[in-house]
Amino acid sequence: MLTLRNLQKEDVPLLMAYDKKVPLSEWDTLLRSGRVLVAEHNGRFSGWLRYDFFASRFPMVHWLGTVLPENREEICERLLSEWETRARIYGYTRVMADVLAQEWMHDWFCARGYRDCGTLLLPGNETHWFLTKSVGRA
């Protein structure tokens, strides 16, 4: 059975081991802000969605990942759906995602109604694709 919940303090050390892009100093902020959803499959940590805001206006997924490859599709689908629902409830009509250009996630998001809306090219870094989707009205 798959359950979703907000990040809790006891999750932070485990997530830090998987999500190495987040600076140590940011974990407390993520915990307090509720910007990380955690998935558990049969009581075991199985994935997470981390988001922030683009231009302080649009909720934007920065990480959507799993640790159970056999349930990857279901876990990602449920996390994204829950996140989009929460965004709509909070009054947002548009959401965004940030994916690396070579990731399979680009095609995955596009198959769920997301559309390309820009790229970020920084010297010495991988190309990021920005995608957007309308989630309607609350």
3D architecture notes:
The protein is of the alpha+beta class and 138 residues long. The protein has helices at 12-18, 27-33, 72-89, 105-110, and strands at residues 2-6, 36-41, 44-54, 58-66, 94-100, 115-120, 128-134. The chain has a seven-stranded mixed β-sheet. It starts with a strand and ends with a strand.
Report the β-strand fraction as a percent range. Answer: 35-45%
Largest sheet: 7 strands, mixed
What's the total number of strands? 7
List SSEs in N-to-C order: EHHEEEHEHEE
Helical proportion, percent range:
25-40%
- Overall pLDDT confidence: 93
Please state the structural category: alpha+beta
Number of helices: 4
Read across the widest sheet, the strand sequence of neighbours is 1-2-3-4-5-7-6
Low-confidence spans: pLDDT under 50, at least 5 residues? none
Shape: globular
The rounded distance between the terminal residues' Cα atoms is 28 Å
The radius of gyration is: 15 Å
Quick description:
By secondary structure, this protein is α+β, with helices and mostly antiparallel strands. The chain has helices at residues 12-18, 27-33, 72-89, 105-110; strands spanning 2-6, 36-41, 44-54, 58-66, 94-100, 115-120, 128-134. A seven-stranded mixed beta sheet has the order 1-2-3-4-5-7-6.
Give the topology, please.
Layout: E1 2-6, H1 12-18, H2 27-33, E2 36-41, E3 44-54, E4 58-66, H3 72-89, E5 94-100, H4 105-110, E6 115-120, E7 128-134
Parallel strand pairs: 4-5
Antiparallel strand pairs: 1-2, 2-3, 3-4, 5-7, 6-7
Keywords:
138 residues, alpha+beta, seven-stranded mixed β-sheet
